[in-house]
Amino acid sequence: MNRYAALLVPAVIPLLIVGCTPRRDRARLLKDVETIAVRMENLHTRVPDLLIRVPTRFVVEWTSEARYDKYFIYDPKDTADVQKGMVMIDVAPFPARQIPDTSDVSRSIGTIDGHDVIWREYVVEDMEGPPLHQREMTSAEVFEEAERFVEEKRVLHAFVVGTDPELVELLTGAVETITVLPRKPNL
After folding, report:
1. N or C terminus: which one in the chain shows less Cβ crowding within 10 Å?
2. N- to C-terminal Cα distance for the chain?
């Protein structure tokens, strides 16, 4: 039996290590950064509004053209063709994923409003210019309590992208500051 264990243990250990997903507290990255709290009013969906903290140089814009609630967070002074860092947030039943499922995708765990979320992480290096760093998450759990009686559930989807890996990490931390606000009473 020991001979079999000696053969199996070296084969199993790499599988266990590859399967481990690191937990990161990215929201702490904002502790030394001047931020503002922005209320994201969900006008197209029937979920409570969201509150997010973003660095003061960034703006949060809601787009009325989207079928569901969609927000863009960006630095208006960053006029490069490919921004150093920006965020797209969707509140929709079936948000479109931006990062393809490949073996090159790594994962990490974060927290949004007390719920664990899995970030999919990818770096695009086959384009002209600097690498494009991407982070993406989806979570239905953040709206679970608010949607107990709703048929079509909503999902929070965030896509963080940019050429500056530190700024992408900081903006991922901003997304992790999202809290679901109490639902407004029907008057």
Report:
1. C
2. 71
| pTM confidence score | 0.83
Residues belonging to the chain = 187
CB atoms within 10 A of CB 55: 18
SS3 for the chain, per residue?
Answer: CHHHHHHHHHHHHHHHHHHCCCECCHHHHHCCCCEEEEEECCCCCCCCCEEEEEECCCEEEECCCCCCEEEEEECCCCCCCCCCCEEEEEEECCCCCCCCCCCCCEEEEEEECCEEEEEEEEEECCCCCCCEEEEEEEECHHHCCCCCCCCCCCEEEEEEEECCHHHHHHHHHHHCCCEECCCCCCC
